[in-house]
Write a structure and sequence with these properties.
The structure is a single chain. Helices cover 28% and strands 26% of the residues. The protein is elongated and about 115 Å long. It has 2 domains: 144 residues, no CATH class; 33 residues.
Length: 190
């Protein structure tokens, strides 16, 4: 650990794990090396541990579903922490609210995944190494997104409404011209 601190090495964490649909958390820290951290800090090699990080990808659900949904619905908030950057030697806490979401492409094709929002807090670490903590909760409500489908009867109703509107406006213009028309007649002078 001393060599890593002196050379200012960083680390890259990559992983995947399955979580149940209940509230939970996961975190990244050096708690297992707390004694080493305290020793290196006592020797004056470091004042605090730098927990700057970039979240390249964090998502909930199956990746192949997310890729297809993102292609068809670019407005979807499927992995909004992608590319998020936090810099400092503080502890960071992310609270993630997850919403189960059904995306229907057609009557026979649908995908179940999750959208999420987050809040981030940074706070100084005292008497222990800093940590990057993720706390998540799955909402009790779900979202269902369906394509807008109109059948032939809806088309006919809309067509009749448009034609009726055109007829009503034409009739009003005709009555208006018919009422005021005789007042503006001119006689031909021979």
């Amino acid at each position: 650990m001393r060599e890593a601190v002196q050379n200012k090495y960083g680390c890259r964490l990559i992983g995947a794990f399955t979580v149940k649909e209940v509230p939970g958390n996961f975190h990244v820290s050096c708690h297992a090396y707390f004694n080493h951290y305290m020793q290196v800090q006592a020797e004056g090699l470091i004042e605090s541990l730098n927990t700057s990080h970039i979240i390249h990808k964090l998502y909930f659900g199956r990746e192949h579903h997310l890729t297809r949904i993102k292609r068809q619905h670019p407005e979807a908030s499927l992995h909004i922490l992608e590319g998020h950057r936090s810099i400092g030697d503080s502890s960071f806490h992310y609270h993630i609210d997850i919403v189960p979401t059904w995306y229907h492409e057609s009557a026979i094709s649908s995908y179940y995944t999750y959208q999420y929002t987050y809040k981030e807090n940074a706070y100084p670490s005292r008497d222990q190494p800093p940590v990057v903590h993720f706390n998540y909760a799955i909402g009790g409500l779900s979202v269902e997104i369906k394509p807008l489908e109109e059948d032939f009867s809806d088309f006919l109703v809309h067509l009749c409404a448009i034609l009726g509107g055109i007829y009503a406006i034409a009739r009003a213009v005709h009555n208006l011209v018919g009422n005021f028309g005789p007042r503006f007649e001119y006689q031909l002078i021979e």
